[in-house]
Amino acid sequence: MAAQKQKEKYKFPEITAEQLASIITKTDSAEVLVKCAEDIGKSLAQPAWGKALTTSQIRAIFGEVRRIEGEWKSPERAKQAGRNLILLKPKMAYRAKKEGQSVENLVSVLSEAIDKVNGDEKNFTRFVELFEAILAYHKAYGGS
After folding, report:
1. Cα separations (Å) of 40 from 15, 19, 63?
2. What is the chain's pLDDT, residue by residue, as a tens digit (144 residues)?
């Protein structure tokens, strides 16, 4: 019962649809990206409820994003890279269910961000920047 009350108090930092759209689709949104990434990274490293996200859990997803980034840089493979980014969503959903609340929280943000990429390489680059910033703040706030 006490754990349930703790869970009800827990609130993962919320990024509004407008903030996320700005981060992914606009070049002048660095301040919004940094603020949101800091809030998320800190929450993942020092959650108010549940287990902290480990660096290896983040890196498992981030490694796949880096692989897609490499594909995107090749003109012959760019279209496939966009497809692979979309196909990353079910892989992340599986990992989230398997590994718990902290991964679910990260995946919820990343899945929405993937939707905003919309096949655009510049948007994908900003998605990677967001993910990198979350990872950096996670480590900065003591993520293991």
Report:
1. 9, 13, 19
2. 444 444 444 578 888 999 999 999 999 999 999 999 999 999 888 877 667 788 888 888 999 999 999 999 888 888 899 999 999 999 999 999 988 888 898 999 999 999 999 989 999 999 999 999 999 999 999 888
Q: Which domain holds residue 42?
A: 19-140
Measured N-to-C along each axis, helices 78-99 and 101-117 cross at an angle, to the nearest 10 degrees, of 160
Note whether 77 and 132 are within 8 A (CB): no
Question: Can you tell me the distance from the alpha carbon of 140 to that of 63, in angstroms, rounded to the nearest whole number?
Answer: 20
State how many domains the chain has.
Answer: 1
**11: in domain:** no
CB atoms within 10 A of CB 123: 19
